[in-house]
Write a structure and sequence with these properties.
The structure holds two protein chains of two kinds.
Chain A lengths: L2 E5 L3 E2 L5 E8 L9 E7 L6 E7 L4 E3 L7 E6 L4 E6 L8 E8 L5 E4 L3 E5 L2
Parallel strand pairs in A: 2-11
Antiparallel strand pairs in A: 1-3, 3-8, 4-5, 4-9, 5-6, 7-8, 9-10, 9-11
Chain B lengths: L8 E4 L5 E6 L9 E5 L6 E4 L13 E6 L2 E6 L8 E9 L2 E4 L3 E5 L1
Parallel strand pairs in B: 1-9
Antiparallel strand pairs in B: 2-6, 3-4, 3-7, 5-6, 7-8, 7-9
The chains are: A mainly beta, B mainly beta.
Chain lengths: 119, 106
């Protein structure tokens, strides 16, 4: 059974870059036509899709992040990563890494990691 | 940008049927997924492709989608079903989520 686990700093200063890694266990990140995805959720609010990377390496991002997000794969480590540049307090949220497959929805989800943007 | 609208809250008595709606322009022309999120937990996929249940999701969860509205129905609602529920669809290669509905079982 595939499991995902986020890791990275819990505190980032304004204007700096947020960097998170998702480690996939129980299966190869290279197998199947999955999209490896990042989704975030500010406290008490709804879910926002950030973007995805396919096993081919191709990526798609939410236009709302205005090109600040980059998602990449590291197949040698069975990981994928997220970078968000020029962060502000509005980027404070729980960040989830998730697997998705075509129209089958987002499943499974990592446990989530809280990132706070503050000086 | 595409919007999915959900009622902020729905209340239901134990054992009754809970209905949560999700509306969006021509929503019935695409697949909708539903997620359950309990406090302090990650979201859990409960319905995909409008009507399908992932393995392990109880049969009391069902879905439908037609016209501009998708519906999540929980038959014989149990106290353990109290949670936030989010619908999700796609718009121009971008995933979109509804604002969420807090289901209270009382």
């Amino acid at each position: 059974q595939v499991q995902l686990q986020e890791s990275g700093p819990g505190l980032v200063k304004p204007s700096q870059t947020l960097s998170l890694t998702c480690t996939v266990s129980g299966g190869s990140i290279n197998s199947g036509s999955y999209a490896w995805t990042w989704i975030r959720q500010p406290a008490g609010k709804g879910l926002e899709w950030i973007g995805r990377v396919y096993t081919s390496g191709s990526t798609t991002y939410n236009p709302s992040l205005k090109s600040r997000a980059t998602i990449s794969l590291d197949t040698s480590k069975n990981q994928f990563s997220l970078e968000v540049t020029s962060v502000t307090a509005a980027d404070t949220a729980v960040y989830y890494c998730v697997r998705s497959f075509v129209s089958r929805g987002f499943d499974p989800w990592g446990q989530g990691t809280l990132v706070t943007v503050s000086s | 940008s595409y919007e999915l609208n959900q009622p902020p809250s729905v209340s239901v008595s134990p054992g009754q049927t809970a209905t949560i709606t999700c509306s969006g322009d021509k929503l019935g022309s695409q697949y909708v997924c539903w997620y359950q999120q309990k406090p302090g937990q990650s979201p859990l996929l409960v319905i995909y492709q409008d009507i399908k249940r992932p393995s392990g999701i109880p049969e009391r969860f069902s879905g439908s989608n037609s016209g501009n509205t998708a519906t999540l129905t929980i038959s014989g609602t149990q106290p353990v079903d109290e949670a936030d529920y989010f619908c999700q669809a796609w718009d121009s290669n971008t995933a979109v989520f509804g604002g969420g509905t807090k289901l209270t079982v009382l």
